[in-house]
């Protein structure tokens, strides 16, 4: 299993190095530096040299590296690396070079606790915090009895929860967060539309509560048992380790003893009956070889009581764009030369008045798009005629947004029941959010093939045309 | 103490030593932290050993951990001093605080010093029976550590029996760690050649594991699932039962649990007779596999590599899910490449249209490698699905129209494959291809176009002109292009003798006189003699009709595939290579490895070669002749090899993997180099004629000595024996 664990900074300097097994030498870190950090063309997350395999993931400016000498479980090693990042985040906020340097003693303590002889052990941040603390005084003063309680809990069947949690007010918050993945071709056909759903829960409940969770009545989880056409269909779901999988398998009930505080209860995927909250219709026309005109219309596709917020539309422009004049009725659009995109976003009410085309009536100063509304961007990009050959990948138009109280899959939380010995009253809250960030993509048509131009203008022109 | 070790009188270490001996607690602790920091960046602080050791006895748990961390690093270099620490360790294992007990036993196992190991057994004995599960689970792993250092001690003290009993422990974490420890010992024992199975998995054990599976931590589940995959079920009912209990794990959030569960189901499904049950299991497998794609890219990649394997075994798993494999614009390249491969695997007549428009999209991206692979994928689709071939050709033509150099070149190579599969169907595109003659600067693309011209010389009016261009620059071209030019000109001459008399003379002259490649010269001589003695025979040979190519359904042989499916999601299944090819023998170190059976070594080398060969085959997927030319004929001297006892060898003999290298392996394996019959006419991807075997020979030659070596009757002196045989694997890696 994992023979060594290292953290490198951007330059390849070792920040943390811990060997778990006898089959490695410390100098193996140099090999990684030479082969991966200083190699600009690394095309795989696993590098095997001789019989040593390096697994690396990036976190900010760091390389988190696990080294193995055997036929290791690749999925487990990567999952572990990511788990380490999660734990580190929960201990000291962010994971970067500075944080690692400032907390290196704590990190050593942690990685000794979460891996033993190369095998991952308890890696639940909540439990770890009970006996690995930032103030050393606490750990020394833990009475023997106390630590035996902790250890029993850390190894028990609900190792994610302390037994002695107490709250004055017992509350549970459920957030259903759906990320919409859309990939639409230039012609408007949907190549891929699906929903990655996360049900996040913040449980502030005393004792050892037994929770039961219910979703839509018409919920189809297995495709083969497809029911009514209006049912919400989930292709697959995955649960936090607190959920009893065997019970879910037999009668589809989601029951669990939640960890204290925030955790991801469930993750699901849905590909059928996805309601796309925003419709984006781009028209890109080329005027001669020096101008490209854009008309991008965004239409909201939900109840007019709801609204889309934080909408950002990124419209890529050719690499040889010099300027873009933007016309928008709502929000603000600006050409960002460094990224070769026009960024069109909703602005705060203060900035609206500064807009050149301030046809925005004072009432709609709220930076959001109401349900059923339609907004349009139009603009013309001026291109320089270049002799310089540069390949442009024609990135897709990308839309980020958030819609509160709306789920693209139609998923609804019906109930959350909490049972506890002391039979206390608990308050439960549910929120829904559908969003996209970097996942909602509409491709731009590429006028790649114009054979008649080849004949007339030769290589240069034809290549130039390829950009759109 | 430190005085006669003569530490430097000044400098950082001197200061640290002073601080370590300070009377103030804070100062001492701070100094220890600085020592650890120096250790991490690679400075030598081993000189401070005695000073650090003094700080071991403390109430402060954090300080203790730091001192232990230091000890673990330097115990090996200071064995005589470590003994001073033993007392504290042993005392700590009696501490009322379970965290201290566990810490002591955990650290002692990591010290790697001979002297301390002897003191480890008694406390370990105690800790294995500790009341506290946290101590027990730590002690369980400590047994594995001890086995790693000194297996005799584990056996003498009966720790193995104790571990086997601990499988029934009431605490799931203890069970999980016990299973991990036993599996670790099992692997080490197998590597060391211990005949007895150190971790026999019986029905009784399986039942206990199935109970613990639902309760233990995610990492524990992986360990248990791995153990379950080693169990051989007695009957169909039992297999079914195991699958049933494991299937709920498909819903786990941890990808390694999901993939390990899939492995267990794949293995035990083999034992299930009922067709319906198998179908249900396969159906249940699909959604979790797709969900794995919403993980971070590294995990996605591991999942994709495994999905690729699963599809080779069961092409029906994800038959309706092609769209989820469409590449996202911001996917890392390694993910995109894998997705591409899987998409082609999933391509059917029904979904070929969206696939093609995707592939066309990818072919216009920036990364050259990805673009090339996308174009290759179009070609593979064309060869795979007859009905779609025309659409593929149209897409390729559009791409050629873009006139981007590498796009055109790759498209030409791919077109050649399509011509191989559908001879005389798409002759209409030849003019377009020839129009791009000037664009080509890569040997492979040139060779492909020349092959096409040669093949259709009769129908191309100016074939002699076109080939003439290449004949003029013959000497400057690379060998594959030279070989291709030679063959193409001869083909042209046989079909249109009147117009190309001069050309053929010129090329044969140049090839035999001025060319420095023996392959090219030899081929030219053969052609010359054929043409001068018997033009009829020349026609029969050079213009022979080649059977059309197909896409192999698997990239690895059937036996290897089964083996790899049992290793999901281990490195072997990610690399699609058996573990022997990348894991050196004996993790304990060369000096501790007992002598291995020579035959075993040889087998490993053969297996390695075979995989490498299979890998190559996969890469050349569409290159010519490989499978076709070779299929009919018996695989050379392969029949004389004796290694039929293992699946890999058996498979090698049965000729399922029809790669030329296989034959070479068996030829060398039987140590009768000279007696090899005419090598199969295939190694050269393009030639209709067979002198291609020699490049392959050259390619294999660095390997051959190592393959031969174990076969020599003289047994090398024992100490060196283990070190040498490890060589082939490393070599192979370096090579490929």
UniProtKB/TrEMBL annotation, chain A:
One of its GO terms (cellular component) is clathrin adaptor complex. The keyword Protein transport applies. SUPFAM superfamilies: Second domain of Mu2 adaptin subunit (ap50) of ap2 adaptor, SNARE-like. CDD domains: AP-2_Mu2_Cterm, AP2_Mu_N. It is found in: Membrane, Coated pit. Keywords: Coated pit, Endocytosis, Membrane, Protein transport, Transport. InterPro entries: Adaptor_comp_med_subunit (IPR050431), AP2_Mu_C_sf (IPR036168), AP2_Mu_N (IPR043532), AP_mu_sigma_su (IPR022775), Clathrin_mu (IPR001392), Longin-like_dom_sf (IPR011012), MHD (IPR028565), Mu2_C (IPR043512). One of its GO terms (biological process) is endocytosis. The keyword Membrane applies. Belongs to the adaptor complexes medium subunit family. This is MHD domain-containing protein. It comes from Trametes cubensis. The lineage of its organism: Eukaryota, Fungi, Dikarya, Basidiomycota, Agaricomycotina.
TrEMBL record, chain B:
Residues 700-736 are annotated as: Disordered. SUPFAM superfamilies: ARM repeat. InterPro entries: AP_beta (IPR026739), AP_complex_bsu_1_2_4 (IPR016342), ARM-like (IPR011989), ARM-type_fold (IPR016024), Clathrin/coatomer_adapt-like_N (IPR002553). Residues 713-722 have a biased composition (Pro residues). The keyword tRNA processing does not apply. Residues 10-534 form the Clathrin/coatomer adaptor adaptin-like N-terminal domain. The keyword Calcium does not apply. Keywords: Membrane, Protein transport, Transport. GO terms for biological process: intracellular protein transport; vesicle-mediated transport. One of its GO terms (cellular component) is endomembrane system. Its main location: membrane. One of its GO terms (molecular function) is clathrin binding. It is found in: Endomembrane system. It comes from the Eukaryota. Adaptins are components of the adaptor complexes which link clathrin to receptors in coated vesicles. Clathrin-associated protein complexes are believed to interact with the cytoplasmic tails of membrane proteins, leading to their selection and concentration. Belongs to the adaptor complexes large subunit family. This is AP complex subunit beta. It comes from Trametes cubensis.
């Amino acid at each position: 299993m994992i023979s060594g664990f290292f953290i490198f900074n951007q330059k390849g300097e070792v920040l943390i190095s811990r060997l778990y097994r006898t089959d490695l030498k410390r100098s193996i870190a140099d090999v990684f530096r030479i082969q991966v950090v200083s190699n600009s063309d690394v095309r795989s997350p696993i590098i095997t040299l001789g019989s040593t395999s390096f697994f690396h993931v990036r976190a900010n400016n760091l390389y988190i590296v696990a080294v193995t000498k055997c036929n290791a479980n690749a999925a487990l090693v990567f999952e572990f690396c990511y788990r380490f990042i999660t734990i580190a985040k929960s201990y000291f906020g962010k994971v970067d070079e500075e944080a690692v340097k400032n907390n290196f003693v704590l990190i050593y303590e942690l990685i000794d606790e979460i891996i033993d002889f190369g095998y991952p052990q308890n890696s639940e941040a909540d439990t770890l915090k009970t006996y690995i603390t930032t103030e050393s005084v606490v750990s020394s003063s833990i009475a023997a009895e106390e630590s035996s309680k902790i250890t029993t809990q850390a190894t028990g069947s609900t190792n994610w929860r302390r037994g002695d949690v107490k709250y004055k007010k017992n509350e549970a918050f459920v957030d259903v967060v759906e990320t919409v993945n859309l990939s639409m071709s230039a012609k408007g056909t949907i190549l891929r539309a699906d929903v990655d759903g996360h049900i996040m829960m913040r449980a502030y409940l005393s004792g050892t509560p037994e929770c039961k969770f219910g979703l839509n009545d018409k919920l189809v989880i297995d495709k083969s048992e497809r029911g009514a056409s209006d049912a919400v269909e989930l292709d697959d779901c995955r649960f936090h380790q607190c959920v009893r999988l065997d019970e879910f398998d037999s009668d589809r009930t989601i029951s669990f003893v939640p960890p204290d505080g925030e955790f991801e209860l469930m993750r699901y995927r849905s590909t059928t009956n996805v309601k796309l909250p925003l419709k984006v219709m781009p028209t890109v026309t080329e005027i001669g070889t020096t101008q490209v005109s854009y008309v991008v219309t965004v239409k909201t596709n939900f109840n007019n009581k709801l609204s889309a917020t934080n909408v950002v539309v990124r419209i890529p422009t050719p690499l040889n764009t010099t300027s873009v004049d933007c016309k928008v009725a709502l929000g603000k659009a600006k050409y960002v030369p460094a990224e070769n995109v026009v960024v069109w976003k909703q602005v705060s009410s203060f900035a609206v008045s500064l807009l050149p085309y301030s046809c925005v009536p004072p009432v709609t100063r709220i930076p959001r798009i109401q349900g059923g509304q339609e907004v349009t961007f139009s603009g013309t990009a001026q291109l320089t005629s270049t002799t310089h050959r540069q390949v442009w990948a024609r990135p897709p138009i990308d839309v980020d947004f958030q819609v509160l109280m709306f789920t693209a899959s139609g998923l609804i939380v019906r109930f959350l029941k909490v049972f506890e010995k002391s039979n206390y009253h608990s308050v439960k809250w549910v929120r829904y959010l559908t969003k996209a960030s970097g996942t909602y993509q509409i491709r731009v048509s590429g006028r790649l093939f114009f054979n008649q131009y080849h004949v007339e203008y030769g290589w240069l022109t034809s290549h130039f045309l390829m950009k759109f | 103490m430190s005085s006669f070790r003569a530490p430097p009188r000044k400098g950082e270490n001197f200061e640290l030593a002073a601080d370590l001996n300070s009377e103030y607690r804070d100062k001492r602790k701070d100094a220890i932290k600085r020592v650890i920091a120096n250790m991490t960046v690679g400075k030598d602080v081993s000189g401070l050993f005695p000073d650090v050791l003094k700080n071991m006895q403390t109430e402060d748990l954090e300080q203790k951990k730091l001192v232990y961390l230091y000890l673990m690093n330097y115990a090996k270099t200071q064995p005589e001093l470590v003994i001073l620490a033993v007392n504290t360790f042993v005392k700590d294992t009696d501490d009322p605080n379970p965290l201290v007990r566990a810490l002591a036993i955990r650290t002692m196992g990591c010290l790697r010093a001979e002297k301390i190991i002897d003191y480890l057994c008694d406390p370990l004995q105690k800790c294995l029976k500790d009341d506290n599960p946290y101590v027990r689970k730590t002690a369980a792993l400590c047994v594995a550590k001890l086995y790693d250092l000194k297996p005799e001690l584990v056996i003498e003290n009966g720790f193995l029996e104790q571990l086997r009993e601990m499988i029934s422990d009431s605490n799931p974490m203890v069970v999980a760690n016990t299973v991990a420890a036993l599996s670790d010992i099992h692997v080490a024992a197998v590597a060391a050649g211990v005949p007895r199975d150190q971790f026999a998995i019986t029905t009784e054990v399986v039942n206990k594991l199935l109970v613990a599976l639902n309760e233990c931590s995610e990492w524990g589940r992986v360990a248990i699932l791995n153990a379950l995959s080693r169990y051989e079920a007695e009957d169909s009912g039992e297999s079914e039962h195991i699958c049933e209990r494991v299937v709920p794990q498909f819903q786990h959030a941890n990808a390694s649990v999901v993939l390990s569960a899939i492995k267990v189901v794949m293995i035990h499904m083999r034992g299930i007779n009922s067709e319906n049950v198998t179908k249900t299991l396969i159906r249940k497998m699909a959604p979790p596999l797709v969900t794995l794609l919403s993980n971070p890219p590294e995990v996605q990649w591991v999942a994709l590599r495994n999905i690729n394997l699963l599809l080779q075994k069961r092409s029906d798993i994800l038959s309706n899910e092609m769209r989820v494999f469409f590449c996202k614009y911001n996917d890392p390249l390694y993910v995109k490449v894998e997705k591409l491969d899987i998409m082609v695997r999933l391509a059917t007549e029904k979904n070929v249209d969206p696939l093609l428009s995707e592939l066309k999209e990818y072919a216009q991206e920036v990364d050259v490698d990805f673009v090339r692979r996308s174009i290759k994928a179009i070609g593979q689709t064309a060869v795979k699905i007859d009905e779609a071939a025309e659409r593929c050709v149209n897409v390729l033509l559009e791409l050629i129209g873009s006139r981007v150099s590498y796009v055109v070149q790759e498209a030409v190579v791919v077109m050649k494959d399509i011509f191989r599969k559908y001879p005389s169907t798409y002759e209409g595109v030849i003019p377009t291809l020839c129009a791009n003659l000037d664009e080509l600067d890569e040997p492979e693309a040139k060779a492909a176009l020349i092959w096409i011209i040669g093949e259709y010389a009769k129908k191309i009016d100016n074939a002699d002109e076109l080939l003439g261009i290449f004949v003029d620059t013959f000497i400057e071209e690379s060998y594959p292009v030279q070989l291709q030019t030679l063959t193409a000109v001869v083909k042209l001459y046989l079909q249109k003798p009147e117009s190309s008399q001069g050309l053929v003379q010129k090329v044969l002259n140049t090839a035999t006189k001025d060319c420095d490649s023996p392959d090219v010269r030899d081929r030219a001589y053969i052609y010359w003699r054929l043409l001068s003695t018997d033009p009829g025979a020349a026609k029969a040979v050079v213009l022979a009709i080649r059977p059309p190519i197909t896409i192999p359904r698997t990239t690895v042989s059937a036996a290897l595939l089964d083996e790899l499916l049992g290793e999901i999601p281990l490195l072997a299944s990610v690399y699609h290579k058996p573990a022997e090819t990348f894991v050196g023998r004996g993790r304990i170190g060369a000096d501790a490895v007992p002598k291995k059976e020579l035959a075993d070594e040889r087998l490993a080398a053969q297996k390695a070669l075979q995989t490498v060969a299979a890998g190559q085959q996969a890469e050349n997927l569409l290159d010519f002749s490989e499978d076709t030319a070779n299929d009919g004929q018996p695989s050379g001297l392969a029949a004389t090899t004796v290694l039929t006892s293992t699946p890999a060898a058996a498979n090698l003999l049965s000729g399922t993997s029809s790669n030329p290298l296989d034959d070479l392996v068996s030829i060398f394996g039987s140590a009768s180099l000279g007696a090899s019959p005419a090598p199969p006419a295939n190694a050269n991807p393009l030639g209709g004629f067979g002198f291609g075997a020699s490049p392959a020979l050259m390619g294999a030659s660095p390997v051959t000595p190592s393959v031969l070596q174990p076969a020599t009757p003289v047994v090398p002196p024992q100490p060196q024996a283990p070190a040498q045989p490890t060589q082939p694997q490393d070599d192979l890696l370096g090579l490929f």
